[in-house]
Amino acid sequence: MQKTVYNKGSYNFRNNVTIDWCPGCGDFAIVTAVTQALSKMDMDPTKVVAISGIGCSGKTPHYLNIAGAHTLHGRAIPYAVGVKLANPDLNVLVMGGDGDMLGIGAGHFVAEGRRNSGIVVLLYNNAVYGLTKGQAAPTMPLGEKVKSIPRPSILGKINPSALALASGYTFVARAFSSEIAQLSDIIIKALNHKGSSMIEVLQPCPTYNDVNTLDWYRKRVYKLENDKSWDPEVNSADEDEEKFSRAYETAMTWGDKIPIGILYKNNIIPPFTERLTSIVPDYFKYPPANQDICDKNGYT
Ligand code: SF4
C-alpha cells in the first residue's frame, strides 16, 4: 500500500478534479469553507473522512483530497456512523442536501440526534432537488413558487435547525454559503465538539430556485455572534432549559430576518462512544474480543 505523504501545514485539501456544479451554485463556497477549516486546523488528512448521499451535494467528497465515499440516497448518515464507530479517532464529515437528508433520509437524520455519535453533518439547504431538475424539497415553504415547479408548493416545510435541536444534536448551527469565514469557523468548532453536529448551510441554487437567491439571503441574514449577549454553550444542566428554548426560538426565526451562527452547543451530554465504553470498557480495544473468529475466517 502506498504511504500517504503529508507535509504538516502545507497540505492541499482540494484535489485537481474539475468541479461540474452550475456557475453560481452555493456548493462551491462550501468546498472552500471545508478546505479552509481543515487547513486552519492543520488536520492530518488521514484522520478525516467525507461521506455523502445522492444529490448535487453528493459530489463534494470527489473534490476533496481526503478519503471519502459517495453512498446511497439518504444513507450517508448511517454509513458515516459505521465509519466513526469502526474508528472513533476519525473526524467524519457528512455532506447531504435537504432532499437527501430530510426526505428519504429523515429517519436517519433524527436517529443520529439521539445517538450523538460525534459526526459532523453539513446539510445543504437550497429548497429544491437540484440534481433531478428542481422539484420542491422538504425545506420549500408552503405556497412558494420557484421557476422549476409548475404551481406553488402545496406541502409545508421542515426547518432543519429546529428539527436537529428537537432530535438531540448537541451542536446545531445555521450558516450561509457566502459567509465563508463564518462557515469555516463553525466547521472547526463542530470538528472539535465531542458529540454530533448539524450545520444547516443556506445556499442558492441559481439554476432552479429563483426566489431564495444570493441577494434574497444577503438582505436577510444576520450574524448571531454580533450580539455580545449571545452565548449558545451549555456547560451545566441548570442552564440547558433556557439556552435550548432560546436556540429553538432563534432557529424558527425565518422571514425578513434570518439568524446565522451557532445556535446551541451542549458540552455535557456524553457522545455515543462514551456511553458504549461506560457499559463495555473494552469496546474499542484492538484486537477485538472476537479476533479468533476473524482469524479463523480470514478477515484479518
Ligand atoms: Fe447547484 Fe442547483 Fe446546479 Fe445543483 S442544480 S449544481 S444545486 S445550482
From TrEMBL:
Against SUPFAM superfamilies, the record matches this protein to: Thiamin diphosphate-binding fold (THDP-binding)
User: Under what name is this protein listed?
Assistant: 2-oxoacid:ferredoxin oxidoreductase subunit beta
Might you name a Gene Ontology BP term for this protein?
Answer: cellular respiration
Names of required cofactors: [4Fe-4S] cluster; thiamine diphosphate; Mg(2+)
One GO molecular function term of this record is:
thiamine pyrophosphate binding
Is Aminoacyl-tRNA synthetase one of the keywords UniProt gives this record? no
Lineage top rank: taxon: Archaea
Q: Coiled coil located at which positions?
A: none
Keywords for the protein's UniProt record, in alphabetical order: Iron, Iron-sulfur, Magnesium, Metal-binding, Oxidoreductase, Thiamine pyrophosphate
Q: Taking every annotated instance into account, which residue ranges of this chain make up the domain Thiamine pyrophosphate enzyme TPP-binding?
A: 54-201
Tell me what organism the protein belongs to: Acidiplasma cupricumulans
